[in-house]
Inverse folding.
DNA sequence: TTCAGACTTTGACCGCGATCAAGGTCCTGT
DNA sequence: ACAGGACCTTGATCGCGGTCAAAGTCTGAA
């Protein structure tokens, strides 16, 4: 599966002394920088389990940011609705991802459950206090944020792509990657979001997304089991499609 | 390029996601959260002044990230060159911005001086050590990073816009904003970057950028003094253009 | 000052994908 | 099981903007 995007350091498995991957408390991907059980439990102590039904809002943009959420199960989309009526999805989040980042004490975007969701909710006050008292924990948070930032830039790259077909290809690779780093089976890719959501994420119309998906299916690069489950038949071809950027 | 005034406004904003890390000198996201002179001096102690000529590279993607840079004067662009030959600019940075984001110990993008640049260079090793020993400093870094993330999402929003005209309008507003928060005069907007750079940032062709700029000029929304200096004549109209997103 | 190279502007062409529209499929609640 | 709504597919049309091309302008070095 190749790195979908050469901007990602090749051989990430590596030794870098830095940065972690998803989830503050259970950094998958980053051998070395792991929280001690003690630290994890300190986090657990200020957390409470919360459930959201499909379609439920975790928080809205502009609200006082009084908690952040560590997803346990389900899928969440974070979005913005700029003036003018546009609707833009800034990210999809899965188990072990953390959502609810804020600036100036307010959430900078809104988050909605795409499927039923369970998550640990931790009050920012308690979290802040905890962070201040634990430099290592704080450092992990910084690593996590850097990673997010890198991710955001990758998203921007996706948006700047030319053809919709490329974007869709890249998107699928991202999902596959995401599943892989979460340790899930990548035989089949799970698409909990609607075509419309995908469109709002990659910057295209839902019709164009639909057409692209079907085109890939017709060319036998993909095979759909149903609307929300795809198998990648030809990784090489998908890679080629995703990286050709001509408009 | 200028003079740096000794006392700076709270809050410096770059256009685009500011890469990295510890934005230290002035934590923007948190009004009131300012470093003590003592802390500033501790940072100063590990810094050294560096100069880069126009066109010079501060660092390249993939290099071992052994320092981050706090800009004093001049303009820097951070970019990625994904496979396929595309070229995408991730952000523009000005005085007081910090560049040099890394993941896994390597820079995730490259940075080039658009004008002559002077910057404080801080070795990451020393910085890390400092952060670990100073929770407040670390906390400030987190605030800064959150803000950067927000900024990155705003960039993504810009890229997802429909019309090129809107993107250009939005870009100009961002620049104006950036100048304003930096405490500079906003009578006139300074565009140190080339049309081609703007295009690579907003996701369009340089010709389209050129045309949009001229169109705005023709409609008397803008007035160019020369290629790199514009005045916004009609803010309301620019706003309207920037927020209309139909494609 | 002059010249070369880099940057910008302008023009013409045309294809991709947004939009509008309509029909089909899935899924949820009753 | 059924109905209604949400979601998806497919078709047709059309304009924005990417691409190619060429001329104009600015800048820096000699």
């Amino acid at each position: 599966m190749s790195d979908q995007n050469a901007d990602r350091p090749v051989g990430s498995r590596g030794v870098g002394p830095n940065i972690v991957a998803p989830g503050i408390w259970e950094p998958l991907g980053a051998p070395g920088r792991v929280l001690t059980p003690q630290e994890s439990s300190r986090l657990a102590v200020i957390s409470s389990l919360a459930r959201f039904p499909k379609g439920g809002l975790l928080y809205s943009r502009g609200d006082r940011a009084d908690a952040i959420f560590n997803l346990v199960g389900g899928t969440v989309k974070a979005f913005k609705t700029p003036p003018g009526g546009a609707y833009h999805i800034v990210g999809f989040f899965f188990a072990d991802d953390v959502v609810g980042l804020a600036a100036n004490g307010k959430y900078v975007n809104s988050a909605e459950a795409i499927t039923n969701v369970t998550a640990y909710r931790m009050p920012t006050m308690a979290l802040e206090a905890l962070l201040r008292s634990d430099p290592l924990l704080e450092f992990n948070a910084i690593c996590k944020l850097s990673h997010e930032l890198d991710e955001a830039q990758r998203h921007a790259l996706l948006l700047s792509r030319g053809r919709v077909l490329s974007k869709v290809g890249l998107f699928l690779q991202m999902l596959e990657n995401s599943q892989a780093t979460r340790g899930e089976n990548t035989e089949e890719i799970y698409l909990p979001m609607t075509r419309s959501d995908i469109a709002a994420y990659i910057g295209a119309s839902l019709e164009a997304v639909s057409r692209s998906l079907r085109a890939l299916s017709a060319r036998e690069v993909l095979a759909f089991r149903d609307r929300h489950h795809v198998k990648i038949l030809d990784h090489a071809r998908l890679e080629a499609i995703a990286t050709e950027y001509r408009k």
User: Anything to note?
Assistant: Residues 162-164, 204-205, 207-208, 211, 226-227, 247 of chain B lie near DNA strand D (CB under 10 Å from a C1'). Chain B touches chain A through 56 residues (CB under 8 Å). The longest strand of chain B covers residues 67-73.
